[in-house]
Every structure is written in structure tokens, then in C-alpha cells.
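Researcher: For the annotation table, I need C-alpha cells for Gluconate 2-dehydrogenase subunit 3 family protein. Please keep the output clean. Sequence:
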Amino acid sequence: MNRREAIKRASYLMGGAISAPAVLGVLKGCTPKKELNWQPAFLSEDQAAVVSEVAERIIPATDTPGAKDVGVPEFIDEMMNDIYGEEDQQQFVAGITELQEMSQSEYDKDFANLEPEQQDALLTKLEAAAQEQGESDKKPFFTTMKELTLLGFCTSEVGATQVLQHIPVPGRYEGCISVEEAGGRAWAI
């Protein structure tokens, strides 16, 4: 190998070492944005994407549909828009913002674009913080999110008929029976 060939190879090596981080930085920023299949009334599209992913992590799709499949994110958006007061709305949005900031600081990605394991890790931290806060006038974001997710899922047709037991025209009332006697599932009503 002559001097010219050595300089040529060294320049290729240096060029690759210098440009690789720049190329990776550009490619890392090319994460596709998850599209919503509904139009939020209260939340922004980015906030709605976060709510959708959190709801899906709380009730994921298994042998039964998950929270996103039965419209829980839309339910939460409607509840926030129509039922909750301004202070609760602001607190909910602040919780979404806090979750996004945690996601950016730990993984340098939006929450909606994280892997499920990474999402679970952040939600576990939020849940631990909510439990530490205990009973107070202001409910933590994650507590409100869990309550609304469960309410939305259990009052959906799928939740009431496939997960819970539902009789549209109930017969006689039997107040004190075991779950096994009731067919192995809790009642939807």
C-alpha cells in the first residue's frame, strides 16, 4: 500500500465516523407519527395520541378487544369536553404534558412512538407517584386516566357483553351469590 492509498482510506474512515452520527440523527427524527382515526373535540391530536396509547396500555387487546378498539380514547375526550370542569381539564392536560416531557427526557421520543415496554416503564412511574400522593383534592393524571379508561371500556358494548356479564332484561334479583354461580364473570349492571 502506498501513501496515496493510505490517505484515501483514512479519509473514507474519517468521513464515515463524522457523518454517521449526523445520518443517525436525521433518521431518528423520521419516526412516523401515529394517525388518529377520529377527530378529538377537547384534546389536541398529539394529546389524543398519548391518551390512546395510555388507554391501550391499561386495557390492551388480548382475546378481547382493547381500549382503542372499543373507542375509549373518544369516550375520554368527550368526558373531558362535556363533563369535567375547567380545573380538572387543565390538570388532565398538564398530566399529558408531564408524561410527554418524561418520555422526551428518558427516551427522546413522543410517548405515542415508544415501544410498549418503554410506555409501561413510564406509566409504572406515574402510578407509583399517584400512590405516593394518596388521597387529596386533586386527582393525579394517571388515576383519572385509569378511572376513565375502565369506565369507558366497561360501559362499551364489548366490555359489557364480552368481558362482563350482561342481561338486557334481568330476571329475579339474587343479591348474595358467588361469582362462580353467576357464570364466572362479574355483572355489567
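Researcher: And a one-line annotation?
Model: DSSP finds seven helices and no strands in the chain.
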